[in-house]
Amino acid sequence: MNNATLLDVRGLSKHYPVQASGWLKPPQVLKAVDEISFHLDEGETLGLVGESGSGKSTTGRLILRLIEPTAGQVLYRGQSLFDLSPQDFKPFRKDLQMIFQDPAGSLNPAYSVHDLIAEPLRVHNLVSTERERRERVAELMTQVGLDPQMSGRFAHEFSGGQKQRIGIARALAVQAKLIIADEPVSALDVSIQSQILNLMQELKQRLGLAYLFIAHDLAVVKHMSQRVAVMYLGRIVELTTSQNLYRQPAHPYTKMLLAAIPHASAQPRIQSKVTQVQGEIPSPIDRPKGCAFHTRCPYAVTRCHEEDPALKEIAVQHVAACHLI
Amino acid sequence: MTPPTPVPLLEVHDLHTHFQTRRGTVKAVDGVSLTLHQGEIVALLGESGCGKSVTSLSIMGLITQGQGTRQSGRVLFEGQELLGLDETALQRLRGHQLSMIFQEPLSSLNPVMTVGQQIAEVLVDHGLMTPAAARDKTIELLREVGLSDAAQRFDAYPHELSGGMCQRIMIAMAIACDPKLLIADEPTTALDVTIQKQILQLLSGLRERRRTSVLLITHDLGVVAENADRVLVMYAGKVIEQATVQQLFEAPAHPYTQGLIDSTPNLDLQGGLLASIPGHVPDLARLPAGCAFAPRCSHAQSRCHVQMPDLSGHVDQRKVRCWIPLTLPVKA
Fold first, then answer.
1. Residue A53's closest chain B neighbor by CA?
2. Which 8-state DSSP code applies to residue B59?
3. Residue A220 contacts B, CB cutoff 8 Å
4. How many domains does one find in chain A?
5. How far is CA B270 from each of CA A40, A43, A136, A219, B180, rounded to the nearest angstrom?
6. Residue A181 in contact with residue A137, Cβ under 8 Å?
7. Residue B6 contacts by C-beta under 8 Å, 6 or more apart in sequence?
8. Which of B194, B221, B269 sits opposite A277 (nearest CB)?
9. Domain residues for A63?
10. Is A19 in contact with A285 (CB distance < 8 Å)?
11. Could you tell me if residue A282 is inside a domain?
């Protein structure tokens, strides 16, 4: 694998002011994403996991500048994306694409498949003639496993898996280098899910794509990613290689997530120490003092209630934020 | 697994639920039979559009006959025929003897009533207690389903609670009258894995404490493996395999079941491509001739495209609907 850094995220934050319930109370701050840093190499897949409300989708949207960050920087091939004017950012939009969870909700119902896939080509002036455009659309449809004969049809005529293929074709149309995939298969049936995951793997091999793969399903993430970042309440609590994470998870939250995955097998799983899966993710407005996870952590000691642990290196290519490691 | 009692709690025989549509007859449920004993958790496993939810709605009598909807077969609850029972009689049973929880708890709850009132309503409407007594019982139920500060939660509205908490409320409502049968239709699909685990533990706890039988409808193989005793796999309106959970995962007999197991990402797997089932689930209004799975099946022979195999097997627990099953269902 190529080791050049494609994307470098530094201290990225997104805070939302929230009106407090009482009129005398000062407004509160919801820290959706709170000073997170990570990098992504060319051709690499980095998984981003966590429960709902952990800030993983917000992170994806921030990188694409779909929402404005509160603080931090994102460098794409060394270029800071947040410093660019909207016009100057446009060429980068080509390189950075997104595919969404709900394929039906992200495709214009009034457009035919041809129009849907041709739209990014038109926006970025990538084709000059009508014929060239038709050829390119047909090529893209073939690439994602759709029959080019169906280009006149509308999104509602396709199944969920096929709609997701259309979404992927749109991202590929502009020759994206990095695709941010936000829960790309969680709305799909099992048999279709594996088709889409395989398609994403093949495209990655063939086109040298990098993915930021956002999902709540650790089994899917493990399958797709070289490295995985685990998020909890807006922060990264553990980041390591996919192998390390599943063989030697360090953070109690990671262990809890792993213990919660139902195991599709006749053999009962060898359970780790953390088999107790308890509590719910607290509101990001009232982030617990100290380590945010202490309210659910079976190992929490007094220090965890008071002091916020920093991310520290615990092994080669393995960082975690926990006092007890 | 607890040894089943001789008289089944629920017996479904050859259930058909067909809908007439402009595109033709949709055979959503096409000859489904199942038995559920007291204290058993049986899973109905399948992908979208396989008829698993319509099966459960039919059992609950929530599908109105007429106007292009045809139902046939038998649904026996403790020997009593439910299909065709009049609405008043059904109303007495539903929520009392048999109850149901749904996938989206937030949209199944009344947004303008406190959750406590909604639970208490069940107890009062079934004539089990006075509103005052129902309040105490409700708080007790809220505690049983694992809500902290149960007394305060009584006055909360659904929007003030998380998805997991709302599902706990739904469960409290469903078990308020101590039903014998609980139908759970994708109860954890909309929830995080951590919350899913807690909800499923709650359901299996109910079975232990109250001997409640659960018909668990799900698309998730992991949920089946960890929670059910037996499983029926559905495809295109029909049961295509039925087995104990152990049997199903050790030696699936139907190529579709095998395909589902292989295409599920598993923590034991190491990268690479996943096995996948080509194509997609057929349109229930335009089913292919022969076995509905044949167009996607790598083992299919000419016979499979012509004639639908029967669901066959020597024992009730192990049956398969396939001309060339992967393992032969032999006597247990």
1. B192
2. H
3. yes
4. 1
5. 21, 18, 35, 10, 43
6. no
7. none
8. B194
9. 5-108+177-190+211-320
10. no
11. yes
**Residue B271 resides in a domain:** no
Cβ pair B196:A260 closer than 8 A:
yes
Q: Which residues of A257-268 are buried (b: 16+ CB within 10 A; e: fewer)?
A: bbbbbbbbbeee
Q: Is residue B263 part of a domain?
A: no
Q: Is some CB atom of chain B closer than 8 A to the CB atom of A189?
A: yes
Q: What is the pLDDT along chain B (332 residues), one digit of tens a residue?
A: 555 556 899 999 999 999 998 889 999 999 999 999 999 999 999 998 899 999 999 999 999 887 889 999 999 999 999 998 999 999 999 989 999 998 888 889 999 999 999 999 999 999 999 999 999 999 999 999 988 888 889 999 999 998 889 999 999 999 999 999 999 999 998 888 888 999 999 999 999 999 999 999 999 999 999 999 999 999 999 999 999 999 999 999 999 999 999 988 877 766 678 888 888 888 888 899 999 999 999 999 999 999 999 998 866 578 999 999 997 655 44
- Give the CATH number of the domain where residue A221 resides: 3.40.50.300
Contacts of A195 in chain B (CB under 8 A): 276-278
Residue owning tokens 């739209």: A119
Across the interface, whether the CB atoms of B264 and A264 are under 8 A apart is answered: yes
Which of B45, B153, B161, B194 best tests the A interface by mutation, with the highest count of A CBs <10 A? B194
Tell me the chain B residues in contact with residue A198 when contact means C-beta distances shorter than 8 Å: 273-274, 276
B277 lies in some domain:
no
pTM of the model: 0.88
Q: What CATH number has the domain bearing residue B161?
A: 3.40.50.300
Instruction: Quote the CA–CA distance of A185 and A180 in Å, as a whole number.
Output: 13
Q: Is residue A73 included in any domain, yes or no?
A: yes
CB atoms within 10 A of CB A288: 16
In a domain, A90, yes or no: yes
Mutate to test the interface with A, among B165, B192, B257 (most CBs of A within 10 A): B192
Is A75 exposed, middle or buried (CB count within 10 Å of its CB: 0-12, 13-18, 19+)? Answer: middle
Contact list in B for residue A157 (CB cut-off 8 A) is none
Instruction: Please say whether the beta carbons of A97 and A76 come within 8 A.
Output: no
The nearest CA of chain A is from the CA of B86 a distance in Å of: 37
Q: What residues have CB less than 8 Å from A211, skipping those under 6 apart?
A: A44, A45, A46, A178, A179, A180, A181, A200, A204, A224, A225
Q: DSSP assignment of B129-172, as one string?
A: S-HHHHHHHHHHHHHHTT-SSHHHHTT--GGGS-HHHHHHHHHH
* A79 near B CB under 8 A: no
Give me the total of CB pairs closer than 8 Å, taking one residue from chain A and one from chain B: 129
For residue A40, the 8-state DSSP code is E
List chain B residues with CB under 8 Å of A280. Answer: 162, 164-165, 194-195
**Least Cα separation, residue A82 to chain B (angstroms):** 32
A219 vs chain B: nearest CA distance in angstroms? 5
Q: Do B275 and A194 touch (CB under 8 A)?
A: yes
Q: How many residues does chain B have?
A: 332
Burial label for A86, CB within 10 Å (0-12, 13-18, 19+), is exposed
Q: Which two tokens stand for residue A158?
A: 């396709």
A193 touching B, CB under 8 A?
yes
Q: Which domain holds residue B36?
A: 10-228
